[in-house]
Design a protein that fits this description.
The chain is of the alpha/beta class. It has one domain (6-445): TIM Barrel. Helix content is 41%, strand content 19%. The chain is built from 15 helices and 15 strands. Strand 7 and strand 8 form a beta hairpin. The model has no long low-confidence stretch (mean pLDDT 97). It binds 5-hydroxymethyl-3,4-dihydroxypiperidine. 5-hydroxymethyl-3,4-dihydroxypiperidine binds at residues 20, 23, 163, 280, 341, 379, 386.
Length: 447
């Protein structure tokens, strides 16, 4: 066995962080999340996103921090409700501000990946039924064209939609996001419309910018049965895995959506509309199917009590799952991959350094096996508004902490670690010994 002291990544590797408009920009008052915040009942302590990280006014200060941390890439999102505040009405000043931001990134040597839709819809879209209304396909395509025409000279890596599976499950099945539905037919329509909107957006981008690289960010979880010997848990696990994450990618690969127990939906227009797949990878869950007479019918997701988890219902931290998922994606879909998100809520930074090291180790292993992963966007650069968790202190994701009263920033040790990794283009034994010595043996033993 050769002893190596550094896990090197490819020279062209994109080392970055990710953010999204509603979570960082502040003062967004024209989208469905703003409406839910006013209504109350969905968010931790009924908090509101409010000023968030004030990026609309001070993004460049954080761009300076990214550059000082040696990052060469950033994934940010454009807020549809700013660009098209009312149907067919375009706000050129908002586009100008996004131009300014993209120029600001490029001037600092940071390549942008631009997400067109990260959870929020303009109010006028949500009032018209959001993803359940098939007109959203046309609206989203038109919005895409507007953005790409205005910003295409500054960006050529586009992410159409962030985490479609999460939007559908949380909004239409689990009732967690406004309007809090539990409606299988609604979920089905939303899924179909979302895939068609993605495809329309994909084609529009290529129409305007033939060399663009277009993908979407897909939240993928490692699911495993709670009781590996119980056929009920096994079947439920396979079903959840299929519905939450396989259905979408398979539909795009085949142009047919196969829903168990329903007819198949032909969608030839969505076939082959990915140049890359973005993996948002965070955790593992175990599935248990509850059945009468012992319990009411339910699909529960659980975590093993002896394993490291995140706060609340966050799930088990399972770095190897990143390797397994990347290898599977490459084997099945044969297109380039990005880690479009990966991170851990950890206000005191007790686990984040080890989390970064162990996940980058798995990523390196995947690249070593020939999986073409082009970049890694850590979630997140800074603490921000975490959707239904609001500003719950247990859900701080930043390499940089934010005091939301004063907008002061403080870099966490994991920020210094990630900065050194980006500077060095890889993970050195010295860094691992400094930030998570307990991992040195695992990370370098088989290398
Ligand atoms: O904050 C979110 C992000 O908006 C989408 N992916 C998961 C992150 C952490 O929960």
């Amino acid at each position: 066995m050769t002893l190596i002291n550094k896990l090197n990544f490819p020279d062209s590797f994109q080392w970055g962080t990710a953010t999204s408009s509603h979570q960082v920009e502040g003062n967004l008052t024209n989208n469905d999340w703003y409406a839910a915040e006013q209504q109350g009942g969905y968010i931790y302590e009924n908090q509101r996103s409010g000023q968030a990280c004030d990026w609309w006014n001070r993004a460049e200060e954080d761009f300076d921090r990214m550059a000082a941390m040696h990052q060469n890439a950033h994934r940010l999102s454009i807020e549809w409700s700013r660009i098209e505040p009312r149907q067919g009405v375009w706000d050129e000043s908002a586009l100008a501000r996004y131009r300014e931001m993209l120029v600001g990134l490029r001037q600092r040597g940071i390549t942008p990946m631009v997400t067109l839709h990260h959870f929020t819809n303009p109010l006028w879209v949500s009032e018209a039924g959001s993803w359940e209304n098939e007109q959203i396909i046309t609206w989203f395509e038109r919005y895409t064209r507007k953005v790409v025409a205005a910003l295409g000279d500054l960006a050529d890596i586009w992410c159409t939609i962030n985490e479609p599976g999460v939007v559908v499950s949380h909004t239409y099945l689990l009732g967690r996001w406004a309007p809090g539905k539990r409606d299988i037919n609604g979920a089905l329509h939303a899924t179909i419309n979302m895939m068609r909107a993605h495809a329309a957006s994909y084609r529009a981008i290529h129409d305007l910018q033939p060399t663009a690289q277009v993908g979407l960010a897909h939240h993928m979880i490692i699911w495993k049965p709670w009781r590996p010997y119980a056929i009920t848990d096994l079947l439920a696990t396979n079903m959840v895995r299929y519905m939450f994450q396989e259905l979408l990618l398979k539909t795009i690969a085949w142009g047919v959506m196969r829903v168990p127990g329903r007819r198949s939906y032909l969608m030839p227009e969505v076939r082959n509309t990915l140049d890359w797949i973005g993996l948002n990878y965070y955790q593992r869950y175990r599935i248990r199917l509850g059945l009468p007479p012992f319990s009411k019918p339910s699909v529960e997701h659980r975590t093993h009590p002896d394993l490291q988890t995140g706060p609340g219902e966050w799930g088990e931290i399972h770095p190897r799952g990143m390797f397994d998922t990347l290898r599977m994606l490459w084997k099945v879909y044969r297109i380039p991959l990005y880690i479009t998100e990966n991170g851990i809520p950890d206000e005191n930074d007790e686990n984040r350094p080890g989390f970064i090291i162990s996940h980058l180790h798995q990523l390196w292993e995947a690249i070593r096996e020939g999986v073409p992963v082009k970049g890694y966007y850590f979630w997140s650069l800074i603490d921000n508004f975490e959707w239904t968790e609001g500003y719950d202190p247990r859900f701080r994701f930043g390499l940089i902490g934010v005091n939301f009263e004063t907008q002061e920033r403080h870099i966490r040790p994991s920020g210094n670690l990630y900065s050194a990794i980006c500077r060095d283009g890889g993970l050195s034994r010295d860094l691992v010994s400094q930030y998570a010595p307990h991992l040195a043996q695992t990370v370098f033993s088989g290398a």
